[in-house]
């Protein structure tokens, strides 16, 4: 077990700093102060981060840490911390580690015994969720980006098909239509909200069913958040059919007889033996 008292340590600290997701005003005073006070900034893209730093007169030296070199940077960051240098991690937009680099680094830094302190900030998923207008926001599942290749993406969506919580995804413009079409195939025509260009001049929310939003997907630009309403099980009055017909329907759908009897009993709210005896005419 490890207990971290974030502000009662004399060793160097790793800070995870939230940055704006589009509008440069969406950064906290604490975040700006932290970026000025640390010894080093590890940035996902130094070009993007220098724009932010220049805007707020942050002169702290920057080095890159992105998905392709994060593993190689772990030892370097731990060396900096061991030498007494505090380091801030920032992504291009939003929160480090959340659909962005940083999680592996944080794991190794905590294992090395250094404090890791979050500096909260903007988040696209939660910003889209709170303005979505969906009736049921809570609970929700944040999924982030789906896999790029269709077979892997299909498997991911099939695993989420009967999740009753509201689902939050991130997607890029050149994959948005294909992802929405696959969601329609797997989820059915659910209510969704597509939020794009959050906090920027062309911020837009598109509310409707999957089939409706797909019709405008070709014209959409910018990074996007997809909020999908959760799975709602169909209510069926099983008193209208016999237990034998119920089991037969499940068998006809491809279920094994033993499993069909068990499933029918659960759906009818009776003991498995009751359905078993009716099925076998005992």
From TrEMBL:
GO terms for molecular function: rRNA (cytosine-2'-O-)-methyltransferase activity. Pfam families: TP_methylase. It catalyses: cytidine(1402) in 16S rRNA + S-adenosyl-L-methionine = 2'-O-methylcytidine(1402) in 16S rRNA + S-adenosyl-L-homocysteine + H(+). Its EC number is 2.1.1.198. The keyword S-adenosyl-L-methionine applies. Residues 13-213 form the Tetrapyrrole methylase domain. The keyword S-adenosyl-L-methionine applies. Keywords: Cytoplasm, Methyltransferase, rRNA processing, S-adenosyl-L-methionine, Transferase. It is found in: Cytoplasm. GO terms for cellular component: cytoplasm. Belongs to the methyltransferase superfamily. RsmI family. Catalyzes the 2'-O-methylation of the ribose of cytidine 1402 (C1402) in 16S rRNA. This is Ribosomal RNA small subunit methyltransferase I.
